[in-house]
Amino acid sequence: MLLMRHSEAGFGITGSDIDRSLTHAGMADSRAAGTWLADEVGPVDLVLCSSSARTRQTWRGMTAGGASGTEVSELEEIYDGGADDLLDLVHGIPDSVRTALVLGHSPGIPTLAHRLAADGSGSDDTRRAFGHGFPTSTIVRLAVDRSWIDLDAGQADLVTVVTPRA
Questions:
Q1: Which residues pair with 22 in a beta bridge?
Q2: What single-letter DSSP state applies at residue 149?
Q3: Strands 156-162 and 139-144: what pairing?
Q4: CATH assignment of the domain containing 110
Q5: DSSP designation for 150
Q6: Which letter does DSSP use for residue 20 in this model?
Q7: Which range marks the domain in which residue 133 is found?
Q8: pTM for this one?
Q9: Which bin fits 66, alpha (ψ -120 to 50), beta or left (φ > 0)?
Q10: Phi and psi dihedrals of 147, rounded to 5?
Q11: What are the pLDDT digits (tens) for 108-155?
Q12: 3-class state of residue 106 by DSSP
């Protein structure tokens, strides 16, 4: 399982928050994230992506960097979703999905990542990175050894934390 915070977005003078676009740096970072995903994970079976402009642009940038997903769903629930809402979405992932990416926002994504990660899992370096905030483009990879519907707090192993930059 992969949990990712969208890449860097700008603050527009007009328009709503959901319509905020990525900055040039954010687009470059999303491509770097896509390269990392392609090189380190490979194709994902399911991408659950917030319906916001910046998350959709992040995924498009990731595909330009080499990432690929079999199925992509854009969901409004991820935009405002807290950790409980996001976990409910994860519980609905079919068992046929081996690798899922949830692409969303702070604080929901970081909170869910911290909730799911088992205490003491991951290398010392990974745990240190996990404890130092959750900047834009951060990806947390968790190993899940159970059905998605059964996943709960502390039941995933922290594999890696990476913040790809261009």
A1: 9
A2: G
A3: antiparallel
A4: 3.40.50.1240
A5: G
A6: P
A7: 2-162
A8: 0.96
A9: left
A10: -60, 145
A11: 999 999 999 998 888 888 888 888 889 999 999 999 999 999 999 999
A12: coil
| Count of the separate structural domains present in the chain | 1
Q: Can you tell me the distance from the alpha carbon of 157 to that of 120, in angstroms, rounded to the nearest whole number?
A: 9
- Residue owning tokens 């290398």: 123
Which pair of structure tokens corresponds to residue 110?
A: 């970081």
43-101 pLDDT, tens digit each: 999 999 999 999 999 999 999 999 998 899 999 999 999 999 999 999 999 999 999 99
Q: How far apart are the first and last CA of the chain?
A: 23
Contact by Cβ (8 Å): 101, 140 = no
Residue with the two structure tokens 């910046």: 54
CB atoms within 10 A of CB 5: 24
- Rounded to whole angstroms, the Cα distance separating 100 from 1 reads 5
